[in-house]
Amino acid sequence: MFGASDLAISVSLWLLYFDHPEHVDLSLASTRLWAWTHNHFPFVMGITVYGVVGNKSFAAAPGQPLGDTKRMLFTSALAVAVLSFRFIEWATKEKDEPLSRKPQPLIRLLSAVVLLVLGVVSDALNVGWLVAIVFSIFLAQVGLDFYARLLLPVPVIQE
Questions:
Q1: What pLDDT score was predicted for residue 24?
Q2: Whose CA is closest to 108, among 148, 69, 138?
Q3: Which residues of 116-141 are buried (b: 16+ CB within 10 A; e: fewer)?
Q4: Residue 110: closest CA among 147, 72, 83
Q5: CA–CA distance from 76 to each of 48, 118, 152, 155 (Å)?
Q6: Is 78 exposed, middle or buried (0-12, 13-18, 19+ CB in 10 A)?
Q7: Which of 14, 32, 51, 155 meets the CB 3.0–4.6 Å disulfide criterion with 98?
C-alpha cells in the first residue's frame, strides 16, 4: 500500500504536468515565459526532494511515524512542487479550443497549504497513513482536472 501510494503521487504529478501541453500558447516575448521558465526550478527541486525523502521513508518501520525532518521535507517538498506548478499553469496560457483545460489556481494553492499543515500536525501519524493522505490530496487534484475537462463541450470532427 505504501509503495503504491508513493508511486501514485508520482503519477499524479506527471498527469498534472503533462496533461495539457499540446493546448498551450506560450509566446516568446512575454513575462509569462519568464514565469514559466523560473518556476520550473522550484518545481523540479520539490520533485527531487520528494523522490529522495520518499525513498528514505521506505526504511521507516511499518506503523511508526516518519521522523520530524523527513515528514516536513516530504510534505513541504510536495507543497513547493504544487505551488510552483500553480504558477507554471498560470504562465501557460491555453489556446481557445474545445479541449483546453482551465488552470485551477485556488485548488493548487489550497493543496499546498493542506500539505504544509499536514506536515506540521501529523507528528503521531504513521507513515502509511501520511502517504495515503498525501496521495488523496493529489488524487483530488487530478480528479478535479478531469472533471473540469468533462464539463467542456465535445469537439466536433469535421470530415
A1: 59
A2: 138
A3: bebbeebeebbbbbbbbbbbebbeeb
A4: 83
A5: 12, 9, 33, 39
A6: buried
A7: 155
Instruction: Detail the DSSP E strand segments found in 36-157.
Output: none
Cα–Cα distance measured from residue 131 to residue 126, given in angstroms and rounded to the nearest whole number: 9
C-alpha cell, 34: 519568464
* CA-to-CA dists, residue 19 to 27, 33, 98, 101, 117, angstroms: 19, 19, 14, 9, 27
Which grid coordinates belong to 21?
501541453
Q: Are 141 and 107 in contact (CB under 8 A)?
A: yes
Q: Which of the two residues, 73 and 59, has the higher pLDDT score?
A: 73
Segment 115-159, tens digit of pLDDT: 999 999 988 888 888 888 999 999 999 998 888 777 765 555 565
8 A C-beta contact, residue 80 and residue 45: yes
Please determine, for residue 44, whether its predicted confidence score (pLDDT) is greater than 70. Answer: yes
Amino acid type, 122: S
Per-residue DSSP letter, 5: H
Return mean pLDDT, the chain. Answer: 81
The whole-angstrom distance between residue 17's C-alpha and the CA centroid of its chain comes to 8
**CA-based R_g, the chain, Å:** 17
Residues 38, 91: Cα–Cα separation, whole Å:
10
